[in-house]
Structure formats: structure tokens, C-alpha cells
Amino acid sequence: MLRKLLVFATLLLCYDVAQAQFEIGVSGGYNKNYLHTSTGYRAFTKYDALSGFVVGIPIQYHFNDWLAIEADPSYIQKNYEQRRDHFFDGIYQKSTNSYIQLPIMAHFSFGGNKLKGFFNAGGYGAYWAGGRVKGAMANVFNNAPDIPNDQQVYNFFEIDKAYQYNEKYTFDSRRDRRIEFGLLAGAGVEYLLQQKYRFFVEARYYYGLSDQQKDYMINQIPRYNDTYVVQAGCLFNIKNIFHPASITE
Fold this sequence. Notes:
249 residues, mainly beta, Porin, twelve-stranded antiparallel beta sheet, 12 strands
């Protein structure tokens, strides 16, 4: 009986310690995504970064005052735009891509008791959940068969009467790679309020290692996401949530 009581007391102590070391919260912010690729043989074509947003539920487990491990399940947009110029000016496509992402990182902090700086380093996995494409393409099917020699190419492609579209992206199982892996690094500042709330602001960089496309063609040009994030949030100590009466200044 005494042995069982000792085991039970030990488990309660471990549970209490674990609660004191766990923090959970919410975060959100702004991001800008760059599609790192080459236009290859496609003349007069470039890719531009587009803005998006991210929301997450950061979870931290603290080993001590300066080291923690963090997981940050989140929803993040990784958007970009393909735009053509010169005599193709007016042709473009904006891609809005939604990802469910799980970053896992080491969290290093330094500074005073309340105001601290920190940096994160680790990796992430993401699932390409959905997308939408919006743009304009050359309206070539409405052209007359005979084009005068002096007519400009702009009018030949009838870009001034371009076909507009805005539709859900349709995934191709032979082409699209929907699982993405990569590395991340971040830095920021945090402030501990009343030993209960940890407010933070962070700048983070996600470096994609997975090509968005499967190997479906010869001499394929890879496409990687590079994402810059600025976010803010608040973490709550789990022990203080469940045992508010124990809070002391």
C-alpha cells in the first residue's frame, strides 16, 4: 500500500512539474512568400512575391530559463504571382496557396527576468491543403485568321481583351507534391507579465527544401517556397491556467 502511495505521489509531482514547464498560446501575423525558381526558356516572365497571413497555436516545453522546445501547428498562406512583360504585358497569374504546417524548433532565450530576447532554429513539415488561381491569359482564340503585317503583337494576342479567370486550383496527383519539408530560423523579443502571460514579437524565415513538383518531366525546373514571417502572440503557463489561486507576484 505504501509503495502505491509513493508511486502515486511521484506521478503527481511529475505532473505538477510538467504543468509548470508547459506553455500554450495563440499567434498570428503577416508573411511574404517568394517562389524560388527559374523561368528557363519562358521569355518575358518573372515571379513576384505576394503577401499572406499565418495563425498558429505555439506550444513550449521549458527545460530551464534559457532553453525550451517549441511546436507551432499553424495555418499559413504561401502566395506568389507570375507576371509577363514586354509585348506580353497584361498577362499574369496570382496563386493563393494554403498550407497546414508544423514547425518544431529549439527555443533559446536570454536577458532579464521579464524582458528577454530569443532565437529559434529547427525544421518544419507542411501539407499543401488548397489553392486558388486568379489572372488573365491571352485571348488567342478570338483572333481573325489573317493578321496585317503592320499589326502589333500586342493586338495579335488581344491582351487588351484578355480572358479573365478566378477559380479553385485543381491538384494533379502526377505533378503536384503536396508535402513540403524545410528549415526555419527566427528571432524576437518576449515580455513576461505577472508570471502568467508571455507576450512576444518574432521575425521568422522558412526555407523550403521540397520541390513543389514531382519528377514528371525531363529537365524539370524546381520550385521552392521561401517565406518571411512577422508575427506576434501570447503564451499562457498551463499550471497557472489550471491553478490560478497559486499565482503570486
